TrEMBL record, chain A:
<keyword id="KW-0786">Thiamine pyrophosphate</keyword>
<protein>
    <submittedName>
        <fullName>2-oxoacid:ferredoxin oxidoreductase subunit beta</fullName>
    </submittedName>
</protein>
<keyword id="KW-0460">Magnesium</keyword>
<keyword id="KW-0479">Metal-binding</keyword>
<dbReference type="Pfam" id="PF12367">
    <property type="entry name" value="PFO_beta_C"/>
</dbReference>
<keyword id="KW-0408">Iron</keyword>
<dbReference type="Pfam" id="PF02775">
    <property type="entry name" value="TPP_enzyme_C"/>
</dbReference>
<dbReference type="InterPro" id="IPR051457">
    <property type="entry name" value="2-oxoacid:Fd_oxidoreductase"/>
</dbReference>
<dbReference type="InterPro" id="IPR011766">
    <property type="entry name" value="TPP_enzyme_TPP-bd"/>
</dbReference>
TrEMBL record, chain B:
<dbReference type="InterPro" id="IPR002880">
    <property type="entry name" value="Pyrv_Fd/Flavodoxin_OxRdtase_N"/>
</dbReference>
<dbReference type="Pfam" id="PF17147">
    <property type="entry name" value="PFOR_II"/>
</dbReference>
<dbReference type="Pfam" id="PF01558">
    <property type="entry name" value="POR"/>
</dbReference>
<dbReference type="InterPro" id="IPR029061">
    <property type="entry name" value="THDP-binding"/>
</dbReference>
<dbReference type="InterPro" id="IPR050722">
    <property type="entry name" value="Pyruvate:ferred/Flavod_OxRd"/>
</dbReference>
<dbReference type="InterPro" id="IPR002869">
    <property type="entry name" value="Pyrv_flavodox_OxRed_cen"/>
</dbReference>
<dbReference type="InterPro" id="IPR022367">
    <property type="entry name" value="2-oxoacid/accept_OxRdtase_asu"/>
</dbReference>
<feature type="domain" description="Pyruvate flavodoxin/ferredoxin oxidoreductase pyrimidine binding">
    <location>
        <begin position="210"/>
        <end position="446"/>
    </location>
</feature>
<protein>
    <submittedName>
        <fullName>2-oxoacid:acceptor oxidoreductase subunit alpha</fullName>
    </submittedName>
</protein>
Length: 288, 577
């Protein structure tokens, strides 16, 4: 069994010192080892942005695609080989702005992949523009008078789209984050894990200290039942989306792969592609 | 006796035009006639004039005809819109219900048949299609038992009573029209066909069948005219083979999902038309940059924007050749027949894996949707070739990565798929080194660009240019692509009768352009006519760019939404000669 060190490679991330994404990288490596994966059985598919580089910083198969499209690529990988463990990842711009359409539909589709969003409420790689996660009034290079659009709540959207696993964490809480990623990896279906991952360079409002002051850990509510959809929705609204922990999980709904007629346990990529002459003749006969 | 005849049925969309066509043509196919169909329809479900035209022949035909022998009309509008196509002595079978009249100056015979009331007498106006096709069949004097067998197969599942009613509807339609016409019409008596049943399908079905035969097991696509039949076919055929079709939220998801699945080792396709292709462009660049195999079908329709979504056009050529940003290797191939649709799709999957590039199969609406006779298809004619895909690998050292983008002589690197031990590497749309790691090093950049862009040097698909060149030196060389080949050949028969020596080439490999092959035929022609369904002569621009000889070239363009007719080609060539 691989240790978390085997999921490390020798590439130095191009993230700023102090970036929240370092902890997310470490948490993925630990969680992958903890659930018993081998580097070659994991595929990390990422989008574009600072956080999108993460697929290159984990010793596993990795694909760094185009902006906003990590999820459809990741779903393609999983459909092609369901024996793989597939993680999709990227930032809040990637997943909730340009890629929002895919996020909602990936949630609905419920393929067994884990989507980890590094949410820093700003566009970092393009040097500081507003994100759909920015607060109203947030001043950036593209909103010098402050953002006048409402802040998007990915947790509420995920819940309303029929998500079967919704969690949120904070990058400094490596223990919680690692555990949630493990739970996400084990969940049979689509798991969304939104991670507050502060941008130390361009976001001077949503800082580590700011998060520490504003976050509510679900551990504070011992009676909280993450299988209760209405309670989950209420809690998200009560805390204005600032809660961390496992917010909702539906273990009843089958994953997409389990619902596709004729889909086998063995990955398609490992099956024989050839068509028998008898099968071909049958197909041709329909055109006579 | 005659060797070919044209039949058309017209009515409001949704009132049985399609099903009448299907039953009538299925029965004709049983007798071994060659068929070529054309659908005129609108972008709506119910209402609006629609018509289907079929050419019936004792020999292979691949074009719609200039004129019409029999018009079946469910409404007056169908007569008004189509009667001008009728040749002198043609026949109109019209529903007596609307008191049909022939427009002035039309020299045709009108047979009002109570199509609706016969159907209603038998229980439902839905059976109009059976009455109409029965009447058509009777006029041709063809054996009714063959027709009834087709009816049985169409309705057998619904029980004997339904079959019986439909057979009765056919008989009443036939009896009524024969009474009016005094028997089958002598000049519509077709020579017997060879009796060998052909395959009869639309191009999109040929592509779907080719995909299954070519090892495609996944498809991700978004519905669009005229591409949807491919996904509709594959969603029925892939599950028994372990695969599936995913209807995605948009074309960007469709193409990126296909890229993900191809990266992970499964032959996966997507299909769309112009608007969807436009959305896919960035991702096609990703496939080019990451050297991921990818097969995309682009069924061209009238553009730009929503354009003429249900009409014929060939105006996406530039988009397919030049569409992506930056510079990537890409293959664009253009099937020119149903058989091509099948074989080219298998080949496209091979090319995509052998060269690790995106391959676009370009069709046009007429090829994708026109139902045609098709020769027997051979499963093993093109064997599956997965190129440099390696599944068994030695173990890697710590921190060592597999050289997925190894610089090789032919520019193609060994390819591995996730899941396999010893193959770890990185994939990114950022410029990268041999292991896939991002690199902005200028020496590496140039090497990687050259590697990718020289991969296709000297590549020719089978039949890159299809040639019919009987003359060593021709007065006119006609060049076309896609569905226009049959039309060109019919026109050439007439031109040859007039003493013009014509050669014909169909360019099937659009990109990279097969310059040498095209040039050799142009060198031996006094004039070159390039025929295409677009307004800006996009194929001619490719020919001029790559071959030159611009002074010889004339373009014949049609962009009114309709396919070329043989007379269009004939007239254009005559004017030049």
């Amino acid at each position: 069994m691989a240790t978390f060190k085997e999921f490390r490679n020798n590439v130095k991330p191009n993230w700023c010192p102090g970036c929240g994404d370092f902890s997310v990288q470490a948490a993925i490596q630990r969680a992958a080892a903890n659930v018993g994966l081998e580097p070659e059985s994991l595929a990390v598919i990422s989008g574009i942005g600072c956080s999108g580089r993460i697929s290159g910083y984990i010793n596993a198969y990795g694909l760094h695609g185009i902006h906003g499209r990590a999820l459809p690529i990741a779903q393609g990988v999983k459909l092609a080989n369901r024996e793989l463990t597939v993680i999709a990842s990227g930032g809040d711009g990637d997943g909730f702005a340009i890629g929002m359409g895919h996020t909602v539909h990936a949630i609905r589709r419920n393929l067994d992949i884990t989507y980890i969003v590094m949410d820093n409420q700003i566009y970092g790689l393009t040097k500081g523009q507003t994100s759909p996660r920015s607060a109203e009034g947030f001043k950036t290079k593209s909103t010098p008078e402050g953002s006048i659009e409402s802040t998007l709540s990915p947790l509420e959207i995920a819940m309303s789209a029929g998500a079967t696993f919704v969690a949120q964490s904070f990058s400094t809480d490596l223990k919680q984050l690692t555990l949630l990623i493990e739970e996400g990896l084990k969940h049979k279906g689509f798991s969304l894990i939104n991670v507050f991952s502060p941008c130390v360079t361009f976001n001077k409002v949503n800082t580590y200290d700011w998060f520490k002051e504003n976050i509510v850990n679900l551990e504070q509510f011992p009676d909280y039942d993450p299988t209760n959809r209405i309670a989950a929705m209420n809690k998200i609204m009560e805390t204005n989306g600032m809660l961390t922990g496992l917010i909702y999980q539906n273990k009843e709904r089958k994953s997409y792969e389990d619902l596709v007629v004729g889909f086998q346990e063995k990955g398609l990529a490992n099956q024989d592609l050839t068509l028998s002459p008898e099968h071909f003749d049958k197909l041709v006969a329909e055109f006579k | 006796m005659i060797s070919q005849l044209s039949w058309k049925i017209g009515g409001q969309q949704g009132e049985g035009v399609e099903s009448t066509d299907r039953i009538f043509s299925t029965a004709l196919n049983r007798l071994g006639y060659y068929l070529y169909g054309y659908r005129h329809f609108s972008s709506r479900i119910k209402g609006g004039h629609t018509n289907n035209k079929i050419r019936i022949s004792t020999h292979p035909i691949r074009a719609i005809s200039d004129d019409l022998d029999i018009l079946v009309a469910f409404d007056q509008e169908s007569i008004d819109l189509n009667a001008h196509e009728l040749r002198a002595g043609g026949v109109v079978v019209a529903d007596a219900k609307f008191n049909p009249v022939l427009p002035e100056g039309i020299n045709a015979r009108l047979f009002p048949v109570p199509i609706t009331s016969i159907a209603e007498d038998l229980g439902t106006s839905l059976m109009k299609n059976m009455v109409a096709s029965g009447a058509s069949w009777a006029l041709l004097g063809l054996p009714l038992d063959v027709f009834n067998k087709a009816v049985e197969e169409e309705f057998g599942r619904k029980g004997a009573a339904i079959v019986e009613k439909n057979v009765e509807a056919v008989k009443r339609g036939a009896d009524f029209v024969l009474e009016l016409a005094g028997g089958p019409i002598e000049e519509f008596q077709l020579d017997p066909a060879d009796g060998k049943q052909k395959l009869f399908m639309i191009g999109n079905e040929g592509i779907g069948l080719g995909a299954v035969a070519g090892g495609c097991r996944l498809m991700s696509a978004y519905p669009i005219t005229p591409a949807s039949e491919i996904m509709e076919y594959l969603i029925k055929k892939l599950p028994p083979l372990g695969g599936t079709v995913v209807q995605t939220e948009d074309e960007i998801a469709a193409v990126t999902m296909a890229i993900g699945a191809n990266y992970a080792g499964v032959r996966t396709m997507t299909a769309s038309a112009g608007p969807g292709l436009a959305l896919m462009m960035e991702a096609i660049g990703l496939a080019g940059m990451t050297e991921t195999p990818l097969v995309i079908v682009n069924t061209q329709r009238g553009g730009p924007s929503t354009g003429l979504p249900t009409k014929q056009e060939q105006s996406d050529l530039n988009a397919m050749v030049y569409g992506t940003h930056g510079e990537i290797p890409k293959i664009v191939i253009a099937p020119a027949s149903i058989e091509d649709c099948f074989y080219d799709t298998i080949e496209a999957f091979n090319l995509a894996e052998q060269y690790q590039v995106p391959v676009i199969i370009m069709t046009d609406l007429q090829l994708s949707l026109g139902k045609q006779s098709c020769e027997a298809l051979v499963l093993d004619e093109i064997a599956i070739n997965r190129g440099k895909l390696v599944r068994e690998l030695p173990e890697l050292e710590t921190h060592q990565l597999f050289k997925r983008y190894e610089l090789t002589e032919d520019g193609v690197s060994p390819r591995v798929i996730p899941g396999d031990k010893g193959g770890l590497h990185h994939v990114t749309g950022v410029e990268h080194d041999e292991t896939g790691r991002p690199s902005e090093n200028s020496v590496n950049r140039q090497k990687m660009m050259d590697k990718r862009l020289t991969k296709l040097n000297g590549m020719y698909i089978r039949d890159a240019v299809r040639v019919d060149a009987p003359h060593e030196s021709a007065d006119i060389l006609v060049i076309g692509m896609g569905s226009t080949g049959g039309t060109i050949d019919e026109a050439r028969t007439r031109l040859e009768k007039d003493g013009l020596k014509t050669n014909h080439i169909t360019i099937r490999q659009i990109h990279p352009f097969p310059t040498d092959l095209v040039k050799s035929y142009m060198d031996n022609a006094k004039k070159v006519v390039i025929l295409e369904n677009n307004a800006t002569a996009q194929l001619a621009a490719q020919v001029k760019l790559h071959v030159g000889q611009a002074e010889k070239i004339s373009s014949v363009l049609k962009y009114d939404g309709n396919p070329f007719l043989p007379s269009d080609v004939y007239k254009a060539c005559k004017e030049l000669s």
